[in-house]
Amino acid sequence: MIGVLTVSIAAAVLIIHVPKAAYDKRILTEQQSIAAYENVLHSFSTPGSDVRYPDHYAGAYIDTSGKLVILIAPSGYSGFGEASSAFREFAGAENTKVVLFREVLHSYSVLLALMEQFNDAFLSNLSNPDSIWSHVTGFALHEDLNCISVEILDIDDSKIERFKAEASASAAVEFKNSRRSSVAESLHPGMMANTGSIGFRARMGEFYGFVTAGHNTSTDSSVYRRERIGTCVTAIVDSTLDGAFVRTDEWIGEIENTTHMGRLLSGINTNPIQGATVFKEGRATGLTIGNIISTNATHQYRLYNGAVTITRTNILVADYRSAANDSGGVVYDANNLVLGIHLAGPPRGLPGERLVEKVCTLQNVLGVTFY
After folding, report:
1. Is the pTM for the entire model greater than 0.70?
2. Which domains does the chain have, with CATH numbers?
3. How much is the mean pLDDT over the chain?
């Protein structure tokens, strides 16, 4: 009877029709290959337990038959035969039948150095939307292909040329289109942003984006929804303001003035009146409704698990419902005019007073404009 190998992947079950004898043979070959690979790596070890790859070593991988393929670069040895003989000896005589050799262009040391260079540049430019790295969504070292593949969002010749000019023109780099879609979900006031919510659409000089609570982000940091959506240009959390402006990434496009629940925000209200109905939209509790309790209040509230106490003056107080993570969410009136953004409320969503940073204060202190 021929056995059938069954492999479970997540909730699905994948049936691979592979004769058990053939499968067992491949596993035995792979086990030998792994032993040979470990022997070769051991030959690179230095007395200090560091690994020092010779110039002619270009990496290794296990092929579809389970055999070990060792790659050899054309440098640091007198010939391909000499290098393969040396590696065969390192692998061990008992593993000779499972070791193959290929000659390639780039040494493993070169590939590792490129990966280190790319990691440093990528991580240091996470908050720089003007860098070529803002178009890069990932890169990986492929030993079987003897290259590093770089994924670029909506790849074209101009972005490839920019990468070569600004990052690396190494022949060891290959480019491909990013697996991530460049079609972004439309952004609306009240949606999630970081651990808080999007406030209202605004611009700061030539920058376009949105306002949120200052304690929801920090200056020069990346802001995320499911993926990165922008960079915080400035965040203020002190006695003058709890607010921030986020410049959205170029690929995000324009933010809508229609809220998450479908209300079209048509302007701002700088003259709120006590008793008026207010609407709040945030990621935690969605759309909730209340009334203005005070148009000019001074209050203290705690942030960062109680580590910081903030005192704010000239804020709105209302009694709509909210919970943690609603911070920064838009607050507007019955005429769909923005009043401000949600700051804080009682813990665990309990009834009580909610604090609102006024839209006029946000615009004046941040230097932004609703549009």
Report:
1. no
2. 5-103 (no CATH), 108-177 (3.30.300), 184-371 (2.40.10.10)
3. 88
